[in-house]
Amino acid sequence: MRQLKLKDIIGYLPYGLAMKYIDNTVTIFYSLPALEPNIPILRPLSDLYRTITHNGKEIVPIIELAKIAYPEGDFQVVNIKGSEIYAQYRNIFRFFYNEGLFQKMDGYGKTYPLNDQIVFFDYLNELKIDYRGLIDEGLAININTLDFNLYK
Q: How far apart are CA 141 and CA 130, in angstroms?
């Protein structure tokens, strides 16, 4: 079994990462914590297309990501198919979470990677979205399984 490493969670730290300790206490860190035996609390990747509360505002993350790419767009989630989540406005904005790329699709069905991918991943980090698969590996806790939401 893989060990949790700092590189797996470092991007979340500037935004206040909650950690569950072995004794079941919970703390929010804004700097480097000792990793073992602590477990980060993250949102699952499936929260990309669900309404979540972030900084007191209800948002749908894939829509907010699409607005980063196309600020003038009025997007809607129109398709969730296998590993693809589509938000659409004129062009289709796609996030392939199996391949880990943000892409756009033109009206002819041709896809193009979006520039400045780090902006999108920084936003995922801010939202504490688990795009690294840590929840599935047992290295993080799915926030939706808790009785409370630390990241409102």
A: 10
Q: Phi first, then psi: what are they for 86, rounded to 5°?
A: -110, 135
| Cα–Cα distance measured from residue 134 to residue 140, given in angstroms and rounded to the nearest whole number | 5
Residue tagged 């693809």 (tokens)? 84
The mean pLDDT of 96-116, rounded to a whole number, is: 73
Q: Which sequence spans correspond to the domains of the chain?
A: 6-42+130-145, 46-125
Q: Which pTM was predicted?
A: 0.74
Give CB contacts under 8 A, 24+ apart, made by 143-149.
143/41, 143/42, 143/43, 143/44, 144/43, 144/44, 144/47, 146/41, 149/53
Angstrom distances, CA of residue 54 to CA of 51, 63, 141: 10, 13, 18
Scored b (16 or more CB within 10 A) or e, 116-150 reads eeeebbeebbbbbbbbbebbeeebbbbbeeeeeee
Residue with tokens 């599935």: 136
Least confident of 16-20, 45-49, 89-93, 138-142: 89-93
Sheet holding 91-96, edge to edge: 76-81, 84-89, 91-96, 101-105, 111-113
